[in-house]
Amino acid sequence: MSRWILHHYGLSPYAEKARLLLGFKGASWRSVAVSPLPPRPGLQPVFGAFRRIPVLQRGADYFVDTRLMAEVLDSVTPSPPLFPTHARAVSMLIANWAEPRAFVMMGPVRFESRDDVQPLLEAGIHPGDFLRDRAPFMAPAVDTRRSGSVRGSARDHLLRAGGLYLCGNQPTAADFSAYHTLWWLRQPPQRDAVLQRVPALCAWADRMAAIGHGRSEPMTPDEALHEARAAQGEAPWRPDWPTVEDERIGQAMTLTADDYGRDPMAGTVSAMSDRHVTLTREAPGVGTVRVHFPKVGYELGAASA
After folding, report:
1. What is the pLDDT of residues 284-299, one digit of tens each?
2. Do both 126 and 176 map to the same domain?
3. In the beta sheet, which residues pair with residue 268?
4. Using CA atoms, how far apart are residues 13 and 214, in angstroms rounded to an integer?
5. Euclidean distance between CA atoms 266 and 281, whole angstroms
6. Is residue 60 within 8 Å of 8, Cβ to Cβ?
7. What range does the domain containing 284 cover?
């Protein structure tokens, strides 16, 4: 079986969540460093205009969104568990509260002064180019009213949480969903004035950071595409949770995120469950690929004529 391949960049909070999930599972994985801005030659032949990062790959199967990555990693490597029975409901609640709305609301805290764009400059990216790219990409997520119904419940849980982590004495998916935004604030230049007000939160973040990223080795975009080509004869990934029958299976459709980065992806719906949707696509120069998305947070629509 192919090893995991992660397409990511170092400054991305969501990529940090994915790296930490891989570390929690003790995974050995390959790292494809991508630019924070398109083009991304290892992904565009497969994804077209769709550009969310990070992406987890295994052979010709691609997994989008860290919420689904947590489910998939937990099914492939059940121990230690990310979704123990007592934590699944809270984990789902926090994932849909903290991602992406709390992340969006932290943007003004993260980018407060000229010093905050220094990491972009060090990565060879002009801050103006970054802003022009991200403004239309993130704009749909600015309206946070949809998260109001769960924000209060998640906040109350966080205030009452006992133990070392949000659901007890072991980390669960809830912790990974809440951590990455705080990780973002702790990157240079740190938001010490904010963070020092909540020492218990910083101690929890230290415990999360200590999980680490597992074992990784670099891989080029071309090598990742080669993995997809070489996997054309392999059996596709199938979840270990039940799939469902749906009249849309077998139909050509588009799938679009319901919050930000609403570039659609077209393909044939080939599988569906209460947790995920799979689009099968023909990628030029690569072959047949399957792109898997979480069910929550994405909308299926009719394919363009």
Report:
1. 999 999 999 999 889 9
2. yes
3. 252, 280
4. 17
5. 8
6. no
7. 4-79+215-302
- CB within 8 A of 114, min separation 6: which ones? none
Q: How many helices (H) and strands (E) does the chain have?
A: 13, 10
Q: Check whether residue 181 and residue 203 sit in a common domain.
A: yes
Structure tokens at 217: 């080795």
pTM metric for this prediction: 0.85
Q: Tell me the pLDDT tens digit for each residue of 71-124.
A: 999 999 999 999 999 999 889 888 877 666 666 666 665 556 666 666 666 667
Number of Cα atoms under 13 Å in the Cβ half of residue 32: 24
Is residue 195 a contact partner of residue 201, using CB atoms and an 8 Å limit?
A: yes
Q: Is-contact 225 45, C-beta < 8 A? A: yes
**φ and ψ at residue 258, rounded to 5 degrees:** -95, 5
Helix ranges, 111-172 (H): 118-122, 127-138, 148-160
β 28-33/252-257 pair status: unpaired
Q: What is the distance between the alpha carbons of residues 224 and 229, in angstroms, rounded to a whole number?
A: 9
| Contact (CB, 8 A) for 32 and 219 | yes
pLDDT at 60 (0 to 100): 97
